[in-house]
Amino acid sequence: MPNVSRVILDSLGDEGISAFFMVPGKMINAYMSNYRQGDEQGHPRIAPVIAAAEGGAAAMADGYARASEKFGVAIALDGPGVANAVGGLVNAQADRSPVVLLSGHIPRGFDARDALQDVTPTGLDMAALLAPVTSSSLQARSAGHPIRYWNTTLRSLAACPTRPVYLSYAADVLFAETDESAVSMRALTSSHTSCDQADLDRVITRINESASVAVLVGSHANKRDVRKLLTRLSESHDILVGSTIDAKGAFTESHPNSVGVFGYSANLRAVDLFARNPPETVLLLGCRPSQWNTNAWDPGLSGARNIIEVTSSIEDIGNFVPGSETLLCDELAFLRHWETTLAGTAFAGNAAVRERVETVPLHEPVPDDVDALHPARAVRCLNKWLKDRVCIADSGNHRSFATHYWTTHIDAGFHSSTTMGVMGWAFGAAIGISYAREEGCLVITGDGCALMNGMEIQTAVRYRRNIIFAIFDNSSYGATYMNNKNNLPELSVLPAHDWVKFAESVGAAGFRVRTLDELDTVAQKIKDDDGVYVLHIMVDRDAGTPAQSYRENLTSFAKSRSGSDAQ
Questions:
Q1: Sorting pLDDT into bands at 50, 70 and 90, what band is 193?
Q2: pLDDT tens digits, one per residue of 326-376
Q3: Of 242, 215, 238, 235, whose CA–CA distance to 306 is shortest?
Q4: How many angstroms separate the Cα of 218 from the Cα of each of 322, 446, 447, 518?
Q5: CB 566: neighbour CB atoms within 10 A?
Q6: Exposed/middle/buried for 424, CB within 10 Å: 0-12, 13-18, 19+?
Q7: Does 565 have pLDDT greater than 80?
Q8: Where does the pLDDT of residue 560 fall: very low under 50, low under 70, confident under 90, or very high at 90 and above?
Q9: HEC string of 39-95?
Q10: Looking at the structure, do residues 101 and 183 belong to the same domain, yes or no?
Q11: Within this chain, do residues 247 and 305 fall inside the same structural domain, yes or no?
Q12: Same domain, 157 and 27
């Protein structure tokens, strides 16, 4: 009869999860014992990946969840291990990424004895601590029906929108044998939200009667089947498509019908199409109403004659553009029904919309009169040679340049943490993404991020991942530096570090580049290689980020809330 840990690992395999991410510890020996040497025939199908730290493991699970469209799994010793993973869970919660954090804690009988690393309600109640950042936070200290806790946890993952979950077992319960079986949650990515047929028909009729239509796609619609169908509809009816910042790449940006990203660091065509000169109807498909996604609540978003919001998330509906016509519906189900109604529909005004939009530049201009390597030029150079890789952008000024100047050429070719913005997240996330997709990855990160979580480069080396880490070194916390020039320099300026030597110390190959020509040569040299590379790219500290419309909207919004413009 299998023990509890084995049932859970087999359940993960049944759900199609190929890897979990962990840091070893005594209280989770039950999970580790399933991988005994000489017992190959009995090994679970899911592979363990050992991270440098639990925060990195959580980021790996987060990246895996985003790229696999399933869920990601991290396993850690409860107490200090789970505490180290909290930042990763908060980040996943903010971006609504389904991450499962499993742990083991003190055996039964140790309660109320001041035991080492007691995380039960008699010690530091970790389940209570994690409750605000999870949809389910449970501790199992009974061997009576232990798999019921796991089944409850799995069911929580089916909620919409998705969120992280936490489940901790007493160490001895994990070893307890059980005849219980796990529920099947393979329907996690299927439709969860149906809508009234009359409402669906009314909304689609409104769209089809429009002379011109454009679609802004958001993160709730960033699923493989949705992307495929949306591309087909765009091509068959000449529909321009943009994406919110948290869904960049949901519509491949090299496609001629793409207008790029709307939101923070927006592409100029997207701003023009959705907020300055909109078509008759704008369809908001699965959009989250965050500050960044709305380009700081751009008032121009209300300019179209018809603004129709379709989303599977009841929490978000009606908030992206207050007053819009709303439909609570699964995004894929909506597109499938819409496609069946489009025969004979022409959208005669779309051609004129396209002609006008194509007169607008896609990018903000890059200044020529600088001696240092401009981050925008560095991103464009990497994009030129590494466009077939998945790009993962970290938090910092470099993300603004990556969002604006990187053009996705592959399906779902961009990932970033947009709501909470944990620095250094991309180091772990890229490893998880590489397991989910088994494709080459490029991380665009910064020196501040590398100081926080760069040790996960050694994890990438250890597991022979195909990842290039491009560290944009401006010797500062970039965004803070821009707002801190009149204060003490040490509050935002970072000391110089040699990231090439660091890379070599953990087994990666490294290159330092100071000029565009040097970067062009190195990127071309390594573009077809597998393995782990670190590019230490010295960039201009004073380069302004491409977010002019966002800054203007944010200033305007702040004034409207303070009443300072009511003179």
A1: low
A2: 999 999 999 999 999 998 889 999 999 999 999 999 999 998 866 789 999
A3: 215
A4: 16, 26, 30, 37
A5: 7
A6: buried
A7: no
A8: confident
A9: CHHHCCCCEEEECCCHHHHHHHHHHHHHHHCCCEEEEEECCHHHHHHHHHHHHHHHH
A10: yes
A11: yes
A12: yes
The mean pLDDT of the chain is 92
Determine phi and psi for 376, rounding to 5 degrees.
-60, -40
Q: How far is it, in rounded angstroms, from Cα 295 to Cα 252?
A: 20
Kindly report the backbone phi and psi dihedral angles of residue 481, in degrees, each rounded to the nearest multiple of 5, phi listed first: -60, -45
SS3 label, residue 350: helix
Residue 347 near residue 211 (C-beta atoms within 8 A): yes
In a shared domain, residues 135 and 89 = yes
Q: Give pLDDT tens digits for 468-495.
A: 999 999 887 767 766 776 777 777 777 8
Question: Which residue is listed with tokens 């704008």?
Answer: 282
**pLDDT at residue 550, as a whole number:** 92
Task: Please give the pLDDT value at position 37.
Answer: 66
- Does residue 94 come out as left (phi exceeding 0), alpha (psi in the -120 to 50 range) or beta? alpha
- Cα(466)–Cα(444) distance, integer angstroms: 14
Residue 310: the pLDDT is: 96
403 membership: H or E segment, kind and range: helix 397-405
- The phi-psi region of residue 507 (left if phi > 0; otherwise alpha if psi is between -120 and 50; otherwise beta) is left
Total structural domains in the chain? 3
